[in-house]
Amino acid sequence: MQLIDGKSLAKKVQATVTTEVAQLKQEKNIVPGLAVILVGDDPASHAYVKMKAKACENVGVYSITHNMPDTISQDEIIATIEMMNNNPRIDGILVQLPLPKQIDTDKILEVIDPKKDVDGFHAYNVGRLVTGLDSFVPCTPLGVMKMFEEYDIELRGKDVCVVGASNIVGKPMASLLLNAEATVTVTHIYTKDLKAHTSKADIIVVGVGVAGLIKEDMVKEGAVVIDIGMNRIEDGSLVGDVDFPNVSPKCSYITPVPGGVGPMTIAMLLSNTLKSAKARA
Description:
By secondary structure, this protein is an alpha/beta fold. The chain folds into 2 domains: 92 residues, 3-Layer(aba) Sandwich (Rossmann fold), CATH 3.40.50; 123 residues, Rossmann fold (3-Layer(aba) Sandwich), CATH 3.40.50.720. Helices cover 42% and strands 16% of the residues. The longest helix is centred in the N-terminal third of the chain and has 23 residues.
């Protein structure tokens, strides 16, 4: 069993971004810029946005956060996004999800200029991803693909089970794997027999937010397991969606939680912002 070290790989990606950001500044006098919209006072969202801002600072990316109360109207958020769409200093626009109930999330994401959609959630980028064209790809699935590449994990022809079908993780993950010529099964909350699908898979990618969902008897010997879940349990510790102590001995590769996929998400956000700035250059 080998651990996939997301922390080390994220540092490697960030080091490359740092070098290229400095190059872009020197050659074109362009500093990549990221704008974040943060609505309400959800502690997890605030902590995550803080981490993003710190990561931007570390690699030399300009970042700004628009803090908004959870009573804000949809029109006010749209006006802010449109202002940033027209701001030449901003290369990436990110709306921290989830948004309050009165806001139509799909409508908000549609307002973002697809060329600045560094989260890869705009329908334009989703369509390009599905058809295998160059696009902005959601950061978490993109980070997982980077892990496969780094650890030389072959995808072509492999049976992959994606557990979870969200627009943010599951669906884009499935599209990336299909584009890499894997055979992909997507399961979700209404899947009748989850074990029947996972136990046949060469690779399992799970991200549903249910602690210990994937048990030892659901994983075949030598499987690769990518755990995107992040759950805080009663004793305050963070665990994934995989029963790590019992599943890991069966795996050829597995990601830990924390220190697996999490750090890669922010690293790929920086990478996407740099990509947008290069396109502007």
